[in-house]
Design a protein that fits this description.
single chain; 517 residues; mainly alpha; Growth Hormone, Chain: A; 2 domains; transmembrane helix; transport; MFS_dom
Length: 517
């Protein structure tokens, strides 16, 4: 039952990723708007997850789990009938996200309370595998429903599953509430800091990093992006200073500073951040390639992602056994190397036509690497603290995951749009078939902002203008090449982020994790 709840929490994002084209059509919007909706969902969870963990301590973890599932059910019901994009944002990104911030930290603590010894390691491996499978199975399930029925049925089905889970919660052994107080200032500082960092990265493709494009305001002649990110970083620094101040004053902070100082825990959280950054980044870029560039429908997209699902499930199941034999550190290092190799392989498969065999093998390898990570990291994080700290650490665990998910979609999307804009401009400038007048108009439009659309949509838009047919062909050819180059750049960025994870693996435990005093 806990695994089913975990599956629901991660299913939504993968369903949304594979349904991007249909969502764009249904809500008469563009890819960038849907990217923002996806990012906001994980951002809400990242911003309030620590607070959700603290509320689990105040209310008792089973009660927090039940309240969170009920809120989540309201959100998914609203999403199923959302008439406008703003209703989708409210139901999915906000209400479901707020429900998840109560469910996930409590879920992590309840797993630890209901299992002991080797069974606990296996349980965390299964939960990690279910989370990975939810992200990977979502495209197949969502793709089929979106193509042959409607994506709304996925959320209607989730509402039914929420009722089933609520009816079964009495079977879970509870972890009672403990005396604590909610640090409101700390909660506000951490939420605002993370929100500003992700907002700045997300809007970089619209505002520009330095040179202002479509910005609400200019600061000293520059785009506000870096100022927003810096403001978020400053608030996070204030948050760290605040929790140290509260601890020194003998008052309970939102997060115990000593937890953040524990090397195994910090390494585990860092790897969870990297894992989800890469996973959501790749699962944002690949559906764009398969749907927008290759023109496949949502179900066909889900089928192409199925090897990753199989790889995740198999590796997550095997990883818990391998971890006891080789230790978490070696398994995670092997997993990071596998993910980097798989993403680089995916870069080589981004071509005008799909090499089915090579693409499937690369996706399977990617799933294996992610499954191995999932089998170890939750176990390491929860095993590094004492029983009474598991809810608080559960909040940190899912904060790291969802912050990584938010930044994964935002960063990879920003790299994608930046590469698309730069490459398209270069192709237009270098193509002798394009006149100076058309080149100048195109350059101005690109610098004002560009979105990721299909070449057929671009051609249809150009056919409605006075641009000569020969120049339309040249522009479409340049855009098609820019699409492929931008997708390769986005995946290369994901590979770099994954490789950076090696830095955190040195502090992971070699053997069974033990609570840090």
């Amino acid at each position: 039952m806990l695994g089913l709840a975990q599956f629901l929490m991660v299913l939504d994002t993968s369903v949304m990723n594979v349904s991007i084209s249909q969502l764009v059509d249904d809500f008469d919007t563009d890819v960038t708007a849907i990217q923002s909706v996806i990012t906001l969902y994980t951002l809400v969870m990242a911003a309030f997850m620590i607070t959700g963990g603290k509320l689990g301590d105040l209310w008792g973890r089973r009660r927090a789990f039940v309240v969170g599932m009920a809120v989540y059910g309201v959100g998914t019901s609203l999403t199923a009938v959302a008439p406008t994009l703003w209703a989708l944002v409210l139901g999915w990104s906000v209400i479901e996200g707020l429900g998840a911030v109560l469910v996930l930290p409590s879920l992590a603590a309840l797993v630890g309370a209901n299992y002991t010894g080797k069974a606990r390691a296996t349980a965390y491996g299964v939960i990690g595998g279910v989370a990975g499978a939810g992200i990977a199975v979502g495209p197949l399930l969502g793709g089929w429903v979106t193509t042959y029925l409607t994506w709304r049925l996925v959320f209607a089905g989730e509402a039914v599953l929420v009722v089933v889970i609520l009816l079964l919660t009495s079977w879970i052994r509870d972890v009672p509430a403990r005396r604590t107080r909610l640090d409101g200032v700390g909660a506000a500082l951490s939420a605002a800091g993370m929100a500003l960092v992700v907002l700045g990265v997300l809007q970089s493709s619209t505002w520009g990093w330095l040179r202002p494009r479509d910005t609400p305001v200019e600061i000293f002649g520059f785009a506000p992006t870096l100022f927003v990110v810096a403001g978020g970083a400053a608030l996070l620094a204030c948050f760290l200073a605040w929790i140290r101040h509260r601890e020194a004053a003998g008052r309970q902070p939102l997060v115990e500073p000593v937890l953040l100082a524990a090397p195994p825990l910090r390494a585990g959280l860092s790897m969870l951040f990297v894992q989800n950054l890469v996973l959501l980044g790749v699962f944002f870029a690949i559906p764009l390639y398969v749907q927008v560039v290759l023109g496949l429908d949502a179900f066909e997209t889900g089928l192409r992602l199925l090897p990753a699902s199989v790889g995740m499930v198999v590796a997550a199941a095997a990883g818990s056994v391998l971890g006891r034999l080789a230790g978490p550190r070696r398994i995670v290092q092997l997993a990071v190397a596998t993910v980097v190799a798989a993403v680089l392989w995916l870069v080589s498969t981004v071509r005008p036509s799909l090499d089915e065999v090579s693409f499937s093998l690369a996706m399977a390898l990617f799933g294996i690497g992610m499954g191995l990570l999932a089998s170890q990291l939750g176990y390491v994080v929860q095993g590094s603290v004492r029983e009474q700290e598991r809810s608080e650490v559960g909040g940190l665990q899912y904060t790291a995951q969802n912050l990584g998910s938010s930044l994964g979609t935002a960063l990879v999307g920003a790299v994608l749009i930046a590469a698309l804009s730069g490459t398209f401009t270069d192709r237009i400038t270098a193509d002798p078939r394009i006149s100076d007048a058309v080149e100048q108009q195109a350059t101005v439009r690109i610098s004002a902002g560009i979105t990721f659309v299909s070449t057929s949509d671009l051609r249809a838009a150009l056919d409605r203008t006075a641009v000569p047919p020969a120049e339309v062909d040249a522009i479409v050819d340049g855009y098609a090449e820019a699409q492929l180059r931008s997708l390769r750049a986005a995946l290369l960025a994901a590979a770099v982020f994954a490789a950076a994870g090696f830095l955190a693996t040195r502090r992971l435990p070699r053997g069974t994790p033990s609570p840090v005093e």
